[in-house]
Amino acid sequence: MYRIDDPTAANSLPTPESAGTEGYFTEGNPTSGTPATNVRGSWLNMIQEELRAVVVAGGLTPSKTIYTQVRDAIKAMVGSGRLLRVTVFSTPGTSTFTPGVGTNAVRVRVQAAGGGGGGAPATTSGQVSIGAGGGAGSYGEGYFTSGFSGVTVTVGAKGTGGTGAAGSNGGASSFGALVSTNGGAGGAIGGPSAPPFSSISTSGASPGSGGYLNVAGGPAGTAFAISTSGFNGSQGGNSTLSGGAGAVANGSAGSTAAGFGGGGGGTGTSGVSSSLKGGDGAQGIVIVEEFA
Description:
Helices cover 10% and strands 23% of the residues. By secondary structure, the protein is mainly beta. The strands form 4 sheets. The chain has a 5-stranded antiparallel beta sheet with strand order 1-16-3-5-12, with no helix packed on it. Strands 2-6-7-8-11 form a 5-stranded antiparallel beta sheet, with no helix packed on it. Strands 9-4-15 form a 3-stranded antiparallel beta sheet, with no helix packed on it. A hairpin with a 3-residue loop joins strand 7 and strand 8. The longest helix has 17 residues, at 41-57. The radius of gyration is 34 Å and the shape is rod-shaped. The mean pLDDT is 92.
């Protein structure tokens, strides 16, 4: 939007007339004596400056030969920061993130997988065995305006519950080197032995790295064995995105965690019993939000 540059143009903005009653243009009617509306320089200057202000606010240099500057300026101002697309990576393994057209920034949310619960070992008469729940995976967030094109996305696989053994660790999740999170630890086991014996628990995953937020995974509850009738496995750790699996006893297999990042449940048994399986943890997830 280039200002008028005719040789007759004023060098500075003239002072407009005093404001009158607002109205509308008319071509006039000679028969009825209605005059045509005068198009004053003050009104034209107002229109010119209003349009030019839009162009300048949009970060464009006013041009005499480009006739789309007002449109382009509005698109630039409205489009900035607008959410364009959300991509969810929820299949364990690796893939590549390719931003869409017009993406200038991304917000990334990364959740690692939870550990599997400990499975109670087989017992004989007078014995008890217990398994602690798995720890939750850590969580991280980041906002990036560069370096996000073509990065490798890793979604952590769930930790599996052990059968008569400790659970396996959950897998780490990451968005390239920009945000990394740690998987939850597998639940430990206690016994088989005559009760009482020391209680056991599992720590949550330590915070990861990168981004502007890194949160540790929640720890599992405490499994205990007081007597052959007073024992319990423990619940899995809670993640930022979901809860861990609940605890079970009475010779039942451990509960599997739902959602993303929570730890699997532990279990316990006593007397003459075969080994039990702990619950599986929940897998990780990576969510990418693209902005103009």
